[in-house]
């Protein structure tokens, strides 16, 4: 190919394609939302949450172990590496063995023992912190392509700090007093505050201070065979 001074190489010549402006609305791209399906809304539409970001991303789930394990299993299915920081390894062992299929896609670590994971865009990481009501400040932190999901069974003195710093919160059934506190922190409307104490098992309010979406997590046959039916209490 010939060269033009100051303009680089001439590229291959192709016929230009043009679309009238009034036809643009008919165009679509076969690309789905980036993330995992966390459940369906009231109309049965899938609700997708993206956990992998080029910037640090923290998620707090005030809810049950069952939902956290479903999220871990589904994210592992997308090719993400899952590091579980927990003081109760026995409740994760079956999941780790079933999800691995000979690969270490979900790994268990004692509290405070999660090593550097080396996340990249092609090998993202989710760290699940299952450290009880008062998860200690550890060396594990969110970073580009490494998100952190902190599981809190109920509200505790550290919960307000974690919720305020989270990019996303998942709230399952809580007491009316807890709902009031969460409503103030997350700036929820009154109807959502009232609903939080009546949510059924498997229902989660995924929210930020600007957006809210309820999702009913319905397990696949494989998930229910491994984890049982949805439950709020462990």
From TrEMBL:
Source organism superkingdom: Bacteria
The protein's name: Uncharacterized protein
Organism: Streptomyces tubbatahanensis
């Amino acid at each position: 190919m010939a060269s033009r001074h100051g303009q680089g190489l001439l590229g291959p010549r192709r016929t230009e394609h043009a679309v009238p402006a009034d036809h643009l609305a008919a165009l679509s791209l076969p690309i789905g939302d980036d993330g995992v399906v966390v459940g369906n809304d009231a109309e049965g539409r899938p609700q997708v949450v993206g956990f992998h970001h080029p910037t640090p991303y923290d998620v707090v789930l005030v809810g049950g172990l069952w939902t956290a394990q479903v999220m871990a299993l589904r994210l592992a299915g997308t090719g993400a590496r899952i590091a579980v920081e927990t003081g109760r390894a026995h409740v994760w062992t079956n999941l780790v063995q079933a999800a691995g299929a000979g690969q270490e896609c979900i790994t268990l670590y004692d509290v405070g023992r999660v090593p550097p994971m080396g996340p990249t865009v092609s090998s993202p990481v989710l760290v699940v912190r299952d450290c009880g009501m008062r998860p200690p400040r550890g060396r594990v932190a969110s970073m580009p392509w490494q998100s952190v999901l902190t599981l809190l069974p109920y509200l505790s003195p550290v919960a307000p700090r974690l919720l305020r710093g989270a990019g996303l919160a998942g709230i399952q059934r809580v007491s009316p007093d807890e709902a009031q506190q969460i409503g103030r922190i997350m700036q929820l409307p009154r109807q959502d505050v009232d609903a939080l104490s009546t949510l059924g098992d498997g229902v989660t309010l995924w929210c930020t201070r600007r957006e809210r979406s309820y999702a009913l997590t319905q397990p696949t046959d494989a998930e229910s065979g491994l984890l049982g039916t949805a439950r709020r209490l462990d």
